[in-house]
Amino acid sequence: MQCTRHKKNTFHIVAVACGQRAQETLVMIKSAILFNYYQEYLKFIIFTEAPLTEIIKEKLTDWRDTLSQQFEYELLPLKFPNQSEREWKTLFKPCAAQRLFLPSLLKDVDSLLYVDTDILFLSPITDIWKYFGKFNETQIAALAPEHENENIGWYNRFARHPFYGRLGVNSGVMLMNLTRMRQFNWEQHVFPIYKEFKLRITWGDQDIINILFYYHPDKLFIIPCEYNYRPDHCMYMSICNSSHSGIKLIHGNRGYFHSDKQPLFKTVYAAIESYQFSSNVYSDFLLPLRTALNAQPVNESSCGKISGDILLVANSLFGSTY
């Protein structure tokens, strides 16, 4: 009964967890549930492998007991095209290429949000999901730009292959309309691109996605940088204007959630990691996060300047109602 009742309004969130990524995956899931203020029904689909499967399953089962009506999950084994499984599995970071095959692996899913495991939600799922409704009739996916500034852009300075737009796109947060991607024959486009450019790509599946949308720019919708906020946006100078809307999803790529280079990222991760679902979100999450973001190491770092943008949505959701 429960599945039928929720099926139409289920928000699918998909990630791929390999190697040492079990804890990071769980903190990402926790952030999505924590910021699920409007109590949408979330379904997490995680592609993973032993021994991570059991680690993730144990924790998610505990959370389900506490929050039984709010989410469900499915843990699926990694699956790649048979003829080149080993090659795809080692592309860039462990198993990231899995995402390229979601249209055929999840045939019953219409639309989903794919996130890298080093993503944290700082806003409700509905904030980013609304962009599906803004797609025109040709668009099949949405991504944020890789850079906002040509002087420090990677693709425009170093890429040895075509890429989308002026500065490329970052694939860590991706809205995917799987129905449209299947109609487009997405995977039939992926294989020839990989064959032609595999010796010239640096960032694995992200490069393949950039090349594909270079040839089919009409298929891509661009979402604002605050939906995929990364250290590059603040470590040199502030190049993502998130002061109005706040930072919606934060991306600790290149290990920044576990590094002291820009302590703001580690601070946000630690606040979500230590929060317990049975506790009070105002006194046990928001207040400690405010305090931690005020600490001297954060304040004195380049990215410390955007602490207010980090807190903006959390303050409005949890600041006065708890």
From TrEMBL:
Annotated organism of origin: Drosophila hydei
Name of this chain's protein: UDP-D-xylose:beta-D-glucoside alpha-1,3-D-xylosyltransferase
Source domain of life: Eukaryota
Gene Ontology MF: a single term: UDP-D-xylose:beta-D-glucoside alpha-1,3-D-xylosyltransferase activity
Sequence similarity: Belongs to the glycosyltransferase 8 family.
InterPro entries reported for this sequence: Glyco_trans_8, Glycosyltransferase_8, Nucleotide-diphossugar_trans
Major enzyme class: transferase
Gene expressing this chain: LOC111598557
Biological processes annotated in GO: protein O-linked glycosylation via N-acetyl-galactosamine
Pfam families given in the database record: Glyco_transf_8
